[in-house]
Write a structure and sequence with these properties.
Keywords: Membrane, Signal, Transmembrane, Transmembrane helix. About 30% of the residues lie in helices and about 15% in strands. The protein is an alpha+beta fold and about 425 residues long. The protein has two domains: about 260 residues, no CATH class; about 120 residues, no CATH class. Strands 1, 6, 7, 8, 9, 10 and 11 form a seven-stranded antiparallel sheet that branches. A four-stranded antiparallel sheet has the order 2-3-4-5. The chain is globular. The relative contact order is 0.12. Bound molecules: heme C (7 copies).
């Protein structure tokens, strides 16, 4: 996992008040979600008196609808952590305005962003369409294991069970990750233990039934009764990374992972920085006083901003295969002569509106290539070493098919290889 991806953005803002905590160091061993045997003594967290008692929870296993409460409640946190949490809440409230606050003045960017997967890449499972579809279907048979998952949804829980292999255990799914343009993968986060699981089944665009989550062939073998029954175990840093790339902001590691602290989706302020001051000033006609906006000084800084999530050479495994690399657009672009030899003129914005969903209009894409590769160049460009070669092979064909082909990644999902080259 990349170093970058795991770090939370906006560390530039002083977080000194957030005492580096050993909170996660003494973390309890994984306790199966929903069992009463969870040890939380290390954390000094009291069970919420209002939440189900342990006995009630144990007996609730028999009643199909009752859900174990696996969330942390602020009132039960140790004072030191509660203080950090309150400081964090205040920091967020004082600095972030939220996407809706931008809509009135930047209607075009807002509308484009609504179309983009960025704006809906993290959904609470209980609020998702998939949850109601699955509870209607009732169950899913695994394609590779002798296993049957059953689903029960209520207004505030979505529970997964496998009575044959993990009797009495109900896993409450927390988040549905991904917009569904390609896929949506559910994760369960157990706030009491700060561990989780990426479920073995995901929803894929164009398919009614859920299917195997990409890369889960590796987990075909599993120990019955363990969390592996349900999917890939996640530790706290895996969960933070996952939420970190699919959210606008999530709390730093000194604060426990809590659903209520995540600002879901890659919102305006993930790329432009917290802009509450800009909104406040703009309402009084002083929008420009809140500059500098998070500006991308040059192509390199731009590339880094996207690479924090879309990934470049710093986050790819040395033996990553070509089909895996095609998924990481900054990795490819940074290797392309189009980027390296165009004097800092090429960024993702040359071909995409960063606010909008990807256009599949091929003529538009070709026009973008030809815009540079037109054979003509002025003296300044020549001096800067910008050569605009015309294809000697098929100058009027579909450039993308040959120089940025779609590479199959998993199942029917493919990505266009952004390492633009003669293949
Ligand atoms: C009340 C109107 C208003 C609201 C609300 C508002 N803006 Fe602006 N914004 C402006 C104006 C006016 C400018 C142009 C300022 C200038 O460059 O002189 C601007 C400029 C910008 C720019 C370009 C800055 C540049 O360097 O060229 C960005 C980016 C931006 N706003 C983002 C946001 C975001 C994100 C939000 C929501 C959190 C937001 N704005 C909310 C009025 C608004
Ligand atoms: C380093 C940042 C990063 C991390 C960590 C990360 N993702 Fe993503 N994820 C992305 C980016 C960027 C995309 C869009 C490009 C792509 O599809 O690969 C994406 C796409 C997806 C999609 C497809 C969405 C769609 O419909 O196109 C799913 C599903 C997904 N991620 C699930 C997860 C889950 C589950 C985790 C954690 C267990 C996770 N991701 C961790 C960055 C990340
Ligand atoms: C994925 C990152 C990203 C997100 C999310 C994002 N922006 Fe931007 N935005 C950019 C980049 C990059 C630019 C610089 C312009 C360019 O290169 O095309 C920009 C430019 C702008 C500008 C200046 C436009 C101009 O023509 O000068 C405004 C205004 C703006 N964004 C507002 C918003 C608002 C409002 C949202 C949320 C609804 C938003 N942005 C979400 C990356 C983002
Ligand atoms: C900002 C200008 C720019 C854009 C846009 C651009 N290129 Fe390039 N491209 C260059 C430059 C500069 C070079 C290196 C000099 C040359 O070969 O002309 C280059 C080189 C190439 C090469 C040769 C690569 C090699 O390794 O020898 C190919 C193939 C190519 N571009 C295809 C494309 C395609 C296809 C697109 C559209 C998807 C595109 N380019 C968009 C500027 C651009
Ligand atoms: C906080 C992490 C993050 C950052 C930073 C980020 N992205 Fe993304 N991006 C994602 C994720 C996650 C997705 C997949 C969204 C989904 O579920 O469909 C995505 C999807 C996209 C898409 C496809 C959207 C669609 O609807 O087809 C484009 C294009 C894109 N990003 C461009 C950019 C550019 C350009 C930048 C930098 C200016 C950038 N992103 C920065 C996380 C990020
Ligand atoms: C049918 C596949 C195909 C299509 C379509 C195609 N190219 Fe090429 N392109 C090639 C091949 C093969 C070469 C290598 C030619 C050689 O080395 O003799 C090449 C070479 C290039 C080069 C390097 C300069 C050169 O000619 O050696 C550039 C730049 C380029 N193509 C750009 C483009 C652009 C822009 C488009 C779209 C307008 C395009 N190509 C369409 C296959 C294709
Ligand atoms: C030279 C043009 C060009 C540049 C620069 C470029 N892209 Fe793309 N991108 C494309 C084309 C062409 C497609 C395929 C569109 C289609 O489906 O027809 C694409 C597709 C995508 C997709 C959809 C998934 C896929 O691979 O098909 C994402 C996400 C994406 N680009 C992100 C980025 C990011 C992030 C950057 C900057 C690091 C970037 N792109 C730079 C041309 C470009």
């Amino acid at each position: 996992m990349s170093k970058k991806s795991a770090t939370i953005p906006f560390t530039v803002f002083s977080l000194r008040f957030l005492i580096a905590s050993v909170f996660l160091a003494g973390m309890v061993t994984w306790a199966v979600l929903g069992t009463a045997s969870v040890s939380i003594s290390h954390l000094d967290i009291d069970e919420d008196p209002k939440a189900t008692t342990l006995e009630a929870r144990a007996s609730s296993r028999d009643s199909r609808s009752a859900a174990p409460d696996r969330r942390l409640h602020e009132a039960n946190l140790p004072p030191r952590i509660r203080q950090s949490l309150m400081a964090w809440r205040e920091f967020v409230a004082n600095n972030f305005a939220g996407d809706e606050a931008c809509a009135e003045c930047h209607a075009a960017e807002y509308a484009a962003h609504q179309r983009s997967g960025h704006s809906r890449t993290l959904t609470l499972m209980t609020k998702s369409i998939l949850a109601s579809e699955l509870s209607e279907q009732g169950m899913h048979k695994d394609s590779r294991r002798e296993q049957e998952f059953t689903f029960t949804a209520t207004a505030d829980t979505f529970l997964v069970r496998d009575e044959a292999n993990a009797p009495g255990i109900a896993v409450p799914v927390t988040w549905l990750v991904g917009s569904g343009i390609h896929a949506q993968t559910p994760i369960a986060v157990d706030e009491l233990t700060q561990k989780g699981v990426e479920l073995r089944w995901s929803s894929f665009a164009g398919h009614v039934e859920v299917g195997l989550t990409p890369d889960h062939e590796r987990f075909d073998e599993f120990v019955p009764g363990s969390i592996e029954c349900f999917g890939r175990p996640l530790d706290a840093s895996d969960i933070r990374a996952c939420l970190g790339c699919h959210s606008t902001i999530a709390a730093p590691p000194s604060i426990p992972i809590m659903q209520s602290l995540v600002i879901a989706n890659v919102g305006c302020e993930r790329c432009h920085g917290p802009r509450k001051d800009h909104v406040d000033l703009a309402h009084h006609g002083f929008a420009e006083q809140a500059k500098p906006m998070l500006k991308y000084e040059n192509a390199e800084a731009y590339m880094d901003a996207c690479a924090a999530c879309h990934r470049d050479e710093n986050s790819v495994h040395p033996d990553a295969k070509a089909f895996e690399l095609a998924r990481f657009q900054p990795y490819g672009i940074k290797r392309s002569k189009c980027y390296l030899q165009s004097d800092g003129q090429l960024t993702c914005s040359t071909c995409h509106d960063p606010h909008d969903t990807v256009s599949h209009d091929r003529l538009r894409s070709i026009a973008q290539c030809v815009n540079c590769h037109d054979g003509a160049h002025d003296a300044g460009q020549e001096a800067a070493g910008i050569v605009k070669a015309i294809c000697s092979h098929e100058p009027s064909g579909d450039c993308i098919e040959c120089h940025m082909p779609a590479v199959e990644w998993a199942g029917e999902i493919s990505f266009h290889d952004h390492w633009i080259r003669v293949q």
